[in-house]
From TrEMBL:
<feature type="transmembrane region" description="Helical">
    <location>
        <begin position="138"/>
        <end position="157"/>
    </location>
</feature>
<feature type="transmembrane region" description="Helical">
    <location>
        <begin position="245"/>
        <end position="261"/>
    </location>
</feature>
<feature type="transmembrane region" description="Helical">
    <location>
        <begin position="40"/>
        <end position="61"/>
    </location>
</feature>
<protein>
    <recommendedName>
        <fullName>4-amino-4-deoxy-L-arabinose transferase-like glycosyltransferase</fullName>
    </recommendedName>
</protein>
<feature type="transmembrane region" description="Helical">
    <location>
        <begin position="349"/>
        <end position="368"/>
    </location>
</feature>
<keyword id="KW-0812">Transmembrane</keyword>
<feature type="transmembrane region" description="Helical">
    <location>
        <begin position="375"/>
        <end position="394"/>
    </location>
</feature>
<feature type="transmembrane region" description="Helical">
    <location>
        <begin position="418"/>
        <end position="438"/>
    </location>
</feature>
<feature type="transmembrane region" description="Helical">
    <location>
        <begin position="164"/>
        <end position="181"/>
    </location>
</feature>
<keyword id="KW-0472">Membrane</keyword>
<keyword id="KW-1133">Transmembrane helix</keyword>
<feature type="transmembrane region" description="Helical">
    <location>
        <begin position="273"/>
        <end position="294"/>
    </location>
</feature>
<feature type="transmembrane region" description="Helical">
    <location>
        <begin position="445"/>
        <end position="462"/>
    </location>
</feature>
Length: 588
């Protein structure tokens, strides 16, 4: 019997040469069809996805108000990341083998691996071309990463055995934590939804939950494979978040294997095959991503973070109770605490006081067992201590120092980003609390208080995030001979010319990343007195054919004098336009 939506048919197959006899047995009445449609509309996961999109739009507003001309947070890293998505899509569309040889940082090789690449968003980069498309693409993805964080945390705690209200609480806590406001300019740090979602898929695939343990009959090999693929996708967004995630997955595998060896429950063969295939995908992606980064580390040894480099970016304990300044609820209230943290903007790491309170209550009231609660609490404490980096006990040597010796951790700039794991563990603890209270509460006032918990968490995430206008590209940039240099140039401002160049991706000296190559630093220095004989000779030796000086941007910078530069005897031709001055180094 087959259900084709409106008609249910019975197919009879007989004999060596089958004949198909189709009898109309039943026609589904319109009322039943309508009921099915409503059931789909009000299905839990339909509501979760739609709700996550609505929540993300509100929490990131006004990101989608003017997506063609504004960008969240600032015009530094976000414009560079808009270029990253555009470049990966361009490379896949035109020459996938040259993916790592980006047009920025000319003439350095493997320049796409100079920082986290957001490679997992490459499919979005296939849609549209040019700076406006890059900006719209970034703004949409910025909203979607918040939605995915909600869905991932919701799915995880639901799979672990929590209720729907608890899932909502965990999703909001993970997606709207105040510390995310301090990372608003770092899309790779905000992109944490894949972590929770992959863990949820892996748990579902293995038929495991906190409340019921391992149940072989509930194993779903397809979900297990999907979980490994989601983990591989998360890793492709960047190693800054991906390296700790990879080691966390390894720890989960070791603990699961040790538990299995002790009890030896049955493991379906299809599940083992799915795990093997999924792990192969994850390791293949890890190897593909690691190869260019290892080449960059060999070429530029100073990209590795020394222990001393970590000191300025390591938060003290009070950082985990301090809110960023853009928080509407806590921003002004925590101004003194932020001042005590110094200039380190990424050390305001508050997961949320409501979340802290629910997690603390979870040590007393919870659907999780006492042992599980203590392990979760230990994980929270451990993640905070490790996240303190060099500010940890005894200078961090016996804590974060144990991670620092592991491959990959010497490339991570900010230990405090381990707050991702603090928040996720707190959310799981809080989910146990909310589920237990929802099961026990019968009084209407207390039930109403539980229903208001999501609003409290949302309130802590409300913000005054700036959305500056991104300047339009000067028309001369579209025709300037490449390779080229755009002035002014600097580590915090080169994202703008990089994004401008997404219409044709010309090779350019400009580039913003996690470090500055020595050759690029030398060119920037020389260009401060361009055009003179030395700077022109250096640029020509580098292969640069034109220098574009943006009139509005160069004022007030060390490059302002280049607007009136003299080219006598330099074989350089100057072309003046309303928006820029273009110097042609090969005037023929």
């Amino acid at each position: 019997m087959y259900d084709f939506g409106d008609i249910v048919c019975t197919v009879v197959i007989t004999g060596a040469a089958p004949t198909h006899v189709v009898d109309v047995v039943e026609s589904v009445p319109p009322t039943e069809r309508k009921a099915r449609h409503w059931a789909l509309l009000w299905h839990e996961w339909t509501l979760v996805v739609v709700g996550s999109l609505a929540l993300a739009t509100v929490m990131t507003w006004p990101t989608l108000r003017h997506p063609t001309r504004t960008i969240p947070s600032d015009t530094g890293d976000p414009t560079m990341q808009a270029w990253q998505m555009a470049w990966s899509g361009h490379a896949l569309r035109t020459d996938p083998l040259s993916l790592w040889q980006a047009n920025a940082f000319h003439p350095e090789p493997n320049s796409f691996a100079f920082t986290d690449t957001l490679l997992g968003y490459a499919p979005a980069g296939l849609i549209g071309t040019g700076p406006v498309a890059a900006l719209v693409r970034y703004n949409i993805v910025f909203v979607l990463v918040c939605a995915l964080a909600f869905v991932g945390a919701y799915a995880l705690v639901r799979q672990l055995g929590a209720g729907r209200l608890a899932g909502t609480v965990a999703g909001i806590a993970f997606a709207c934590a105040p510390w995310r406001l301090a990372q608003a300019g770092h899309l790779q740090v905000l992109s944490t939804g894949g972590i929770a979602l992959s863990l949820a898929m892996l748990a579902r695939g293995h038929g495991w939950s906190l409340r019921h343990g391992y149940r072989p009959e509930r194993a779903r090999p397809g979900w297990a494979l999907a979980g490994w693929c989601a983990a591989a996708w998360q890793l492709s967004l960047g190693f800054g978040i991906g390296v700790p995630f990879g080691y966390a997955l390894g720890l989960v595998v070791v603990v699961a294997a040790a538990t299995w060896l002790r009890r030896r429950p049955p493991l379906p063969r299809r599940l083992l095959l799915a795990d093997g295939a999924g792990l192969a995908v994850f390791l293949a992606v890890a190897a593909f991503m690691a190869r260019p980064y290892l080449a960059v580390a060999e070429q530029f040894p100073y990209v590795r973070r020394s222990w001393e480099n970590l000191q300025w970016a390591s938060p003290p304990l009070r950082g985990f109770f301090t809110s960023p300044g853009t928080s509407i609820v806590w921003g002004e209230m925590h101004a003194g605490a932020r001042a005590a943290l110094g200039h380190r903007g990424e050390t305001s790491l508050l997961p949320g006081f409501t979340l802290y309170a629910l997690a603390a209550l979870g040590l007393v009231i919870s659907v999780w067992t006492l042992r599980q609660r203590l392990l979760l609490a230990a994980g929270v404490v451990a993640s905070i201590v490790l996240g303190m980096g060099t500010q940890g006990p005894w200078g961090g040597r016996p804590t974060y120092g144990l991670l620092y010796v592991l491959p990959g951790f010497d490339g991570i700039r900010t230990p405090g980003r381990l707050v991702i794991w603090t928040t996720l563990l707190l959310a799981v603890l809080a989910a146990g609390t909310v589920t237990a209270l929802a099961q026990r509460v019968r009084a209407r006032p207390v039930g109403l208080a539980l229903a208001l918990l999501p609003l409290l968490l949302v309130a802590e995430g409300l913000n005054r995030m700036p959305h500056p206008d991104v300047p339009a590209a000067p028309a001369a940039l579209a025709t300037a001979p490449a390779p080229l240099l755009v002035l002014p140039s600097g580590a915090t401002i080169d994202g703008i010319p990089m994004m401008w160049a997404t219409d044709r991706f010309p090779p350019m000296v400009n580039g913003a990343a996690a470090f500055t190559p020595q050759r690029q630093a030398s060119i920037r220095d020389a260009a401060s007195h361009f055009p003179d004989a030395d700077s022109v000779a250096l640029l020509r030796a580098t292969g640069v054919r034109s220098v574009v000086v943006v009139r509005a941007a160069v004022k007030g910078t060390p490059y302002e004098a280049t607007l009136e530069g003299r080219t006598d005897g330099l074989s350089v031709r100057r072309v003046d336009t309303p928006e820029a001055v273009v110097y042609l180094l090969d005037p023929a």
